[in-house]
Amino acid sequence: MQSLLCIGTFRFNCFLFILVAVVFNNPTDSGAVQLTQQNIDMTLASNELVFINFYADWCRFSNMLMPIYDEAAEEVAKDFPEAGKVVMGKVDCEKESSVASRFHITKYPTLKVIILTNYIK
User: Fold this and answer.
1) Is the pTM value of this prediction over 0.85?
2) How confident is the model over 94-115, as a mean pLDDT?
3) What is the set of domains in the chain, with CATH numbers?
């Protein structure tokens, strides 16, 4: 009986650990700002330079770029802490298809730099 109780406690602890790991490991929490239809216009209007990564979760190359891009975004946020200067953002093109079509995105990942609302490929 004691061994069954120990196994049950172990299973519960493993389940609890996995649950906490999944809840607190959110890949969208990074230096890169998640851009959506609701916030992209305000982000573009309120910053001098916006560097955007247009990605798709199913794309192998997007997945390879994402950790590098997020790390770079964190460094840029440290180097340019003042608001309105430089922002590195990312757009999930599967969820935000209207934003992707607005910027003529057909391949993933696509990087674009937007300076004072004029974009450069």
Assistant:
1) no
2) 96
3) 27-120 (3.40.30.10)
